From TrEMBL, chain A:
It comes from the Bacteria. The keyword Oxidoreductase applies. Keywords: Cell membrane, Membrane, Oxidoreductase, Transmembrane, Transmembrane helix. InterPro entries: NarG-like_domain, NarG-like_sf. GO terms for molecular function: oxidoreductase activity. It is found in: Cell membrane. It is a multi-pass membrane protein. The lineage of its organism: Bacteria, Pseudomonadati, Spirochaetota, Spirochaetia, Spirochaetales. The chain crosses the membrane at residues 25-47, 91-108, 128-146, 162-181, 220-247. The keyword Amino-acid biosynthesis does not apply. GO terms for cellular component: plasma membrane. This is NarG-like domain-containing protein. Pfam families: Nitrate_red_gam (PF02665).
TrEMBL record, chain B:
SUPFAM superfamilies: alpha-helical ferredoxin. This is Fe-S oxidoreductase. Pfam families: CCG, Fer4_8. The keyword Plastid does not apply.
Amino acid sequence: MDPQAVSAASQAVVHTGFALFLDKLYYFIMVPLVYISVIVMIVGIVAKIVSIVRAPIPAFSLKTYPAKKRPFLAALGDTFGMPMIRKEKPLFWFFLMMFHIGIFFLFFGHLDLFPGVNLMPPESRHMIGAGAVGLSVTIPTFYFLFRRFKGQERHISVPSDYLLLLLLLFIFLLGDMISWGNSWTANGFVMTKADFKNYFGILKSFSFVDPRTVLHGSHYHFVVLHVFLAELFMMILPFTKIVHTFFSLPLNLLRRR
Amino acid sequence: MEAATQEALKKLFESKLNKAMRLYLDTCAHCGLCVEACHVYQAMPETKYTPVGRAEVVRKLFKRYFKMQGKIAPWLGEVIELDDKSVNMAYEAAFSCTGCRRCVTVCPFGIDTQQVMNIAKLLLIGAEKQPQILAMLSDMSIAKGETWKETANDYIAALNNLAPEVEALAPTPPGRPAIPIDVENANVLYVGLSGKHSIVPAAAILNAASENWTISHFEAVNFAAWLGDGEKQRLIAKRIIMEAERLKVKEVAVVECGTATRVLKFMTGSHPFRIVSIVELIARYIEQGRIKVKPGTISGTLTYHDPCQLGRNGGVMEEPRYIIGKLTDKFVELTPNKEANWCCGGGGGLISLGEHEFRMKTGKVKVDQMRASKADTICTACENCHTQLTELNEHYGLGMKVESLTNLVAHALTGFGA
């Protein structure tokens, strides 16, 4: 590995009082809460899917016409191409596509941080997209949020719509800062992809080592906040409209079959 | 609202939570795509007249009583309580929706507001706030199913009186009555409505095709489908299904009525006979050369209104155009049409409920389409649409002729005995 890829280690500092409390809180967020939130998300999603699978089947077909020769392919097209949005609101569609493609790359960007996975060259200091992926989700999220402040979108929105978008926005902005902004210091990268890989290594190994030993510098606060908000997102995911991640295809199948 | 009533309504709500409904209620992203797809919103741009606005009434109750969020952070989804106010909101939502399902085609998830409104309608029934006219008409239809034998002779006499009118349009095949009834092993059981306008033209066409057919003792219309009462809807449809089974017919042809066709064709399970719209049957007769129509019987240009339940929700879109193609070469389409066609504003039981002022307002988008077509005549294949288009034509002074497709065909029949 390129030694420059890893930021310089700093001397461990022993804290007391409020600083000690923060250390413990940070540790809880960075390690145990990661596992807890993943478990809550998985259990929540499974429970949600089970509740739907166990519900009675509709007594009749809910499809609309003209019927498609290949309903499954049509539903796939509806789900991933969103042709109805492209036709009705092209700008909204553009941002939706940008956002969802960005999420796809974001997933792989984080997967790349796991030890043994090298979608980007190991010596690269950047994550996938070198910051572009982060922007591709951040900009549309601003659009999604602002469009809810006018017209009927404002009237049909409920507090959870705004809070969810704000949550995403802060996760993305912090992510942008971590993946991109932290390279803007006079000395180059504060934290590099290799540093985050070490952190993911701690999580993967269940060693419960304090991540502070591998993530150094003042950016750590932002990393903790990013991780905390992402945990929050994972834990509420099964209970919010984000479940459309899993249900969009089955829903589109309902109108195609 | 009393606690016992509230509990009963919660149980009714839960009884409707099938797979589709859970998905519909859980997944809406409030993206607003459906807003402008609704003809009611187009005429009266208020949130309560948007598909999402209507569904939110039900969704907020769902969140309140069936989701954790409604218990620990109700403000997040602005949940509402099951009380008199929410029941009134449910009424306005359910009976300002014609169930046209145009919003389904633009929703990225295909959320079916008509289905969600069925929960609202069931809550209204539970709270005894359902429209009494529809409830009464539904009960009358069910009663007819139980007592039809008592009135059968009067009905047959009335049918016999229509024979000259049928024969004026097409000769009756030798050895058969103009309007046969109770014919066992007939090929076609035709189910009309209560007026002769739904019987005479269809009888002429069936006779012109030399079809071995029989007429139903019942009318096709299913008021309970608009009322949202699943059990009554089943009972009303069952009368016709049992009659078709009793007579061992091969096919049931339903009068120009979108809702009746959709209910019978798609919501009654599988049967040993086919169920088709009369429009499909006419198209088949023309295609097979069993009937002939003479072009040029319609003066000026003709346009066609796709009934929502027959077109977008029933798949009968090409057949009417095929028939019209044989009747005239001066056909112009409404824009948009077929699956994207605007509802006329008469569906969902609104015609039976009266609601003239509301229907005239919400039919504005259809009126704009009719005007833009510059057609002299508009035809359709649904009784409700026909009534609504006629009233819109008069109200807005469009000066068009409004026709039923079956009637146009019946008056263009030719080539008998050829």
